[in-house]
Amino acid sequence: MKEVMLTVEGLEKSFKDKQALKGISFEVRKGEIMAILGPNGAGKSTTIRNIMGIMYPDSGSITFHNYDGKEIPRNKIGYLPEERGLYKNVKVMDILLYLADLKDYPLDKAKERILMYLEKFDLVGKDKVSMEELSKGMGQKVQFIGSVLHEPELLILDEPFSGLDPVSQELFKEEIRSLAKNGTAILLSSHQMNLVEEMCDRLFMIQNGQKVIYGSLDEVKTKYANFKCTIHGKNQLSVLENIPQVQRVEQKEDTSILYLEQTVDPTNWLKQLPNNLAIQELKINRISLHEIFIDIATNNNLIAEVGEVHA
Ligand SMILES: Nc1ncnc2c1ncn2[C@@H]1O[C@H](COP(=O)(O)OP(=O)(O)OP(=O)(O)O)[C@@H](O)[C@H]1O
């Protein structure tokens, strides 16, 4: 197993009468992309802010290598906060060198890396431009550069893809993957489940300040992502609902989605379909992370049925 870089253990945090975190525990390992997911207000940013030392937990511990809490060398960590925006009337190169300096990173090396990244992110020549002259997406790229410039061992990205066009999204994805490949531990919060599904090795899902899922993407999919069968063809709802091992059916015009029980073996299940079904097209696949997320965030059906995954 990969070396553990960050350990969060039993984190509790309250704001006045609101308990935002109720015993959050997880690890982030060298070279992995770990997603922290959850509905709005679940506690993701609060968790991240505690790791970054922007606030301190009421109880629980945060360990980076062998350092605890306030001892953690934050210059070994990179952070792209949810709130975007750097000083407006400062030139791109100056603000990035300032950030590198804050992290005690050698400035000549930083300058080289800034120019390399500006080229990579399609911002050649923008080093001399002031921040206020950049578009929102360009500003976000510069802020991303600021978070990786000093070659952090742990990179925390709070909603890195929000507001990016598809091309810029690809650039970020590629860069994040390549950083992980080179050993950076990455903790990433995102609401874009398709991207999480594409990129992440493991995930931690939080709701109301509590863990609901923690495990590798494969484990989570095997455990939570039951099969569904999509049929294009005109069929009566009652007929579909009466097929064995069908939990529920969603119908839109001539397309029906049959959500199947966890124990279904697709080959055997297909063999016993009624022979008078109208089928123009049929496919079987596992439900997506997006659907798992919605299920958990809205009614907890899946969790109640199958329990938890542990990493
Ligand atoms: N500084 C604060 N003072 C009071 N309450 C706060 C503060 N920061 C967060 N909270 C509360 O803590 C809970 C968790 O908020 P947090 O920002 O961590 O959620 P989140 O998962 O990051 O949500 P989102 O997806 O909307 O960004 C919310 O109920 C929020 O109202």
TrEMBL record:
Keywords in alphabetical order, please.
ATP-binding, Nucleotide-binding, Transport
Q: Which Gene3D superfamilies did the record assign?
A: P-loop containing nucleotide triphosphate hydrolases
Q: Do you know which Pfam families this protein is assigned to? A: ABC_tran, DrrA1-3_C
Q: Which residues form the ABC transporter domain?
A: 6-233
Instruction: Give any GO molecular function from the UniProt entry.
Output: ATP binding
- What residue ranges are annotated as transmembrane? none
Q: Which SMART domains match?
A: AAA
Q: Which family does it belong to?
A: Belongs to the ABC transporter superfamily.
* Protein's UniProt name: ABC transporter ATP-binding protein
What is the organism of origin for this protein?
Ornithinibacillus bavariensis
Highest classification ranks of the organism: Bacteria, Bacillati, Bacillota, Bacilli, Bacillales
